[in-house]
Design goal:
The complex is a heterodimer of chains A (307) and B (341). Chain A has 307 residues and is mainly alpha-helical. Chain A is built from 13 helices and no strands. Chain A is 76% helix and 0% strand. By secondary structure, chain B is of the alpha/beta class.
Amino acid sequence: MTYLVRRLLEALLVFFGISLVIYAMTYVLPGDPVAALAGDRPLAPSVVRALREQHHLDDPLFVQYGHYLAGLFQGDLGTDFSGRPVADQMADRWPVTIKLALTAWVIEAVVGIGLGVLAALRRGTWTDRTVLAFTIGATSVPVFVLAYTAQMVLGVKFGLFPVAGTTEGWPAGYVLPALCVAAFGLASVSRLVRAEVIDNLRADYVRTAVAKGLTRRRVVGVHVLRNSLIPAVTFLAVDLGYLLGGTVIIEGVFNLPGIGQLLFQAVRGHAGPTVVGVSTALILIFLAASVLVDLLNSLLDPRIRHD
Amino acid sequence: MTTTTGGTPAEPQPLLEAEDLTVDLLSGTPGAPRSRRVVRGVSFTLHEGETLALIGESGSGKSLSAMALMGLLPATTAEVGGSVRHRGTDLLALHPDALRARRGKHIAMIFQDALSALNPTLTVGFQIAEVIRAHEQVGRREARARAVELMARVRIPDPARRYRDYPHQFSGGMRQRIMIASALALSPDVLIADEPTTALDVTVQAQIMELLAELRESTGSALLLITHDLGLAATAADRVAIMYAGHIVEQAPVEDLYDRPAHPYTEGLLAALPRLEGPPDDLTPIPGTPPAPGPLPPGCSFRPRCPAARDSCATRQPALLPAPPARLVACHYPLEASSAR
C-alpha cells in the first residue's frame, strides 16, 4: 500500500504544479476579461469594480490562486465572470463527452485488438497487408480531414448518419464522430497488438502450451493473448484519459457540446475560472488514468509488483 | 528399467520409431526461399520404459530432432521429412487434431529453461491443471485437486498454497519440478526431456534426475533424454545415441559405448571429459569445428577432424550399420570393433 500512498503524493504534487501554471497562464492572457464580457457597450464603472472585487482581479497572482484553491477544497470550482458556476457548465457538458469518449474507446479496444490479432495470425497474407494499409491510412490522415470527409460523404451525401449535433442522441448521433476520434488510436492498438502477438507466438511458453496438446484456440486465446495485451492496455488506459479530455476538433466539426468545446470557448472568451476549472478536472482524469494503467499492468503481469 | 537391445530389427513393435527423420530450416523470402538441412536422416527406436539418450554438441540437430518428433516446428520455418511412428501410427502424417490429442497425453515434453517455458502471467497450478483439462472431461475443481496432488508428488512444499503462485516466485529447480509435474500429469508413455537440467545447479540437477527416475517408475514412461552431458547420460540412460552434424554416428547400450567407443567422434568426446584420476591437464579436445548446416561435402562429415581418417572417407559417406552384438556405428574404420567391417 506504500505504492498507493506514493502515487497519491505524486499526483498531489503534479496537481498543484499544473493548476498553478494554468492559472498563471490565464492570468497573463492579453485583454481584460471584464471588458471582454461586456462587448462593445462599456459596463458601468461600479459594475466593473464589483466584478473585479468579486473575482479578486486586483490581487497579486498568488493571492488569487490561494482564493481559488480555498474554494476548490470546499468543493467550489468558482464562477465565471457572467456569474454561472463553473461546476454547472461542466455538468452540462460531461454527458456528451463521456458518451463520445466511451463509444470511441470501445471501438478502439474491440476493433483494434481484433484487427491486430487477425493480422498477426494471418501474417504475410492479404488480410495482414490490408490491415497494415488501413492502419497507415488511419494514422497519417489528419483528424479534421477525416472528420470533414466522413461528415460530407456519410452524413451529407448518403445520409447514413446525422450530419451534426446531438439531437438524435446515442448511438446515432455519436457513432460517426466516435469512429473519427477512434481512427488513430484504433490503428495504434492494432499495430501494437500485431507486433506483440507475432513476438509471443515464438515464445518458449507457447511451444510448451502446444506440446501440452492444447487447442490452437486456447494456445492463442489464453497464452498468447494474455501476454500480448499488456502494452495495448497501457495505451488504451492513457487514451481514455485523453478522450475524456474532450476532442476539440471533433466536437467542433460535429457540433457536439462537450468538454472540449467548452474549454475552447472559455479560452477564446477569457473565461479564466472556466479554463482553470476544466483543466483541473482534466488533470485529475489523467492522473487517475495513469494510476489505472499501473494497477492494470500489475494485474495482467504478476511480475510487476508495487511494493 | 530394462535394457533393450538396440540393433535387432525383429523386435516387437517399438513404442516410438523415428525413421530417416530430416529437418530443413527455411529462411529467406517466399520469392527466394532458402533451406538448410540440419537433421540429415536420423533413425532410432524407443522401447517401453527405457531411456535413450541423444547426445550431441550444440547444432548437432538433437533438439530439432526432438521438436520434429512432437510436431513442434512451425511449417513456416522448418520442413520435416521421414517418419515418426508412435505405436505404429506415423505422427508426421497425422491430422493436426489427432496429433494434438496425443501431445501431452501420450507424448510429453520437458524443456531446458523452465523460466521461459512456463507462461509468466499464469499461475503454476493453472499451467499444470490445463494439460489435464485439455485431454480429459474433468471439472475445474477436480483438475485443480489433481494438480495440487501432482505438485505434492514432485515435492513442492505446501502445494495447495503454492498452486496460486507464479513461475517467477519459484527457484529454478522448483520451476523444473512444475514442468515435470505438467509433463507427467497424464502418465504419458513417451517423455522427451530436452536438456532438462542444463539451466540448473549441479546439486539440483541430481535431485531433478532422481525425481524423474522415481516418477517414471510409477508412470512407466519411456524417456528420450536430449543432452550434451555425457556424464548425465551415463547415469540415466539405458542406451545412448551420439549425433554429429545431423547424423547419428553411433548408438549402443550405455556400458558398451562408454567402455569401448567404436566411432572416433565418440572416442574424442570421451577423451575430452575431465576425469578425477590422472593429471588435471589430461583433456584432449577434438581439433577443428563441426560443419555448418547446409550441404556437406561428400564422404564422412567427421573426416576433417578424424585422427583415423583414410582416403576412402572423403568419397563415401558411411551408413549406420549394426556392429554385433548391440551396436550401430557409422564409420568405415570403427575402432576396436574390426568385426563390423
